Structures are given as structure tokens and as C-alpha cells.
Amino acid sequence: MKLARSVNQGKLKAAATVAVLAVTASLTIAEDESSFDGHTLAAQGKATVSVPAETIRIYVNVKSRKDSVQEAIQDNAERMRAVLDGFLAEGITEEQWETQGFRLEPLHSEEPYPIPPDWEPKLLGYQVENSLLITSEAIDSAATYIELAAENGADSVWISFDVKDREKHREEAIAKAATKARHDAEVLARATGVRLLRAQSIDLDNASDRSGGVRARASFSTTTSYSLFGDPGEGDVPSTLIKAGNVDLWATVTIIYEVEELP
Fold it and tell me: d(Cα 129, Cα 111) in Å, to the nearest integer?
């Protein structure tokens, strides 16, 4: 048949990229992804929707290490209370924070090597680790929040940016990816002399979101705080530089069509 001969004449390969305002969509067709297989044609559309960050998430961690469980818990509670009070004084409300995790564990001496036959681990104390998540729409206050946490005793803090209506933008990415897949399938069908019939299968892969690049994330540890806040003995310390980036929501749609040869 004419259709079968077109298969033997070679595999089809195509790539396309489309940009619409802040939205980009691309189609990548590998030899094993989009080619004739009997009477079917497959096309894959990829779309990314980039949305300016609208909210900020601040993850604050406080660790306490003491000789007894009670001392570790009390020390951690006091230090975390100081951190939280600092955020509340900055305008964060009770509804904007929640506990992300709490961990209490004993600390033992490390195993020597080689291990003596009579060796037993020695209890060194206890460690309590408490983590908070604070959410705010004041994304321009990222640097302030980082410094606030450090000044009030946090051991580590990292931030990420998000959008308010993630599902809305995710659906937009899915729709654009599906439209792109359909468009490229039509182009491929016209170029090879076949007609698209019904869709045999439609697959949605990896519909997700991610924060864009280093501009959307930041982290520090108080053990290396000089890199962020400078040496306290050096006088005025420059403010931490944080810039919110875009939040990317993306989707991949693969459509396999039944096709027939044009007369």
C-alpha cells in the first residue's frame, strides 16, 4: 500500500517551539515517539505557563541539643517562641504559620573503626528539631523575613515562591499542550498525505509546577551566616538580596490518532 511504502521510506522527525506572551509551548518528536505505526500517528505537545510569584513560603528550623530530654524540649520551645514572636511582630498572623515537623532523638557516640568487641555506644544527649512554615503575600519582604529569622535564633531558613491559584494555571498549561499536540498532528498529517480520524489515546504526563531558577529559592545556615549578613564587627551589614522569579507550571500531552490514506 501507499501508506506502507511511506513507512519504509523513513522515519519522520519534527520539532517546533511556539511562544505566546508569557507562555511557551514546544513539540519534540523523536523517531520512536512520532512515526507511522500501522495506521496511527502520534504527536506530543509541551507547554509551560510562567506566572509571576504571588506568595512566599518561609521554612524556619530550630535545633536544640541538651543533656536531657526536658532541657532539649524547653530550650527548643523558648528559641522557637522567640522566632515566632519576631514574625508576629512583623505582621504575620496566627493563621499564616503552621508546624511542619517536630523531631526528638537521642544522640550517641559514633562507632569507632575497627569496632572493639566490648564497645558500646555512649549517650551524648538529646536533640530536638522543630520546623515552621510561614506563608505570606508580601514577597518583597523575603530578605526581611530571612534576617528576622536569623536575628531571633533560627538555625536555618529557606524560602520558595508560589502562586495563589496553582490549579488554574496548571489547567492552562494542559490545554495549551493539548492544542499544540493537535496542531502538530494536523501539520504532520497534511505533510504525509493522511487524514486524522479519532484519537486512539490521550496521555497527560508530568503536569506539574516548579519555581523558576535561583531567583525563586534561597537558603542559609547560621553556621555560615557571615556570607549573608557579614561580620557583626564590621559595622553596617548590607541587606540580603532576594528577588522573586516566576513560577513555571508545565504539562506534556501525547495524542495518538488513527489515520487513513487520502484518496
Answer: 23
Residue 252 to residues 30, 35, 198, Cα–Cα distance (Å) = 14, 18, 20
Grid cell digits, residue 221: 545556615
Share of the chain above pLDDT 70, in %: 72
- Starting at the edge strand that comes first in sequence, how are the strands of the sheet with 55-66 ordered? 97-108, 123-136, 55-66, 156-162, 217-221
What radius of gyration do the chain's Cα atoms show? Answer: 28
What one-character DSSP code corresponds to residue 34? S
Report the C-alpha gap between 4 and 38 in whole angstroms. 8
Enumerate domains of the chain plus CATH numbers. 2-51+166-211+249-261 (no CATH), 55-162 (3.30.70.2970)
Ordered alpha helix ranges (H), the chain: 2-8, 69-89, 142-151, 166-192, 226-229
State how far Cα 1 lies from the chain centre: 49
d(CA 71, CA 127): 10
What is the C-alpha separation between 163 and 78, in angstroms, rounded?
A: 33
Contact partners, residue 122, CB within 8 Å, separation at least 6: 108, 109
> Which grid coordinates are listed for 99?
508546624
Spatial separation of the C-alpha atoms in residues 45 and 28, rounded to whole Å: 7
Q: What is the DSSP string of 223-236?
A: GGTHHHH--GGGSS
Backbone angles phi, psi at 4, to 5 degrees: -65, -40
Is residue 58 predicted with pLDDT exceeding 90?
yes
The three three-digit cell numbers of residue 254, written as one number: 501525547
Of the candidates 134, 156, 149, which has an alpha carbon nearest to the alpha carbon of residue 224?
A: 156
129-154 pLDDT, tens digit per residue, is 999 999 999 999 988 999 999 999 99
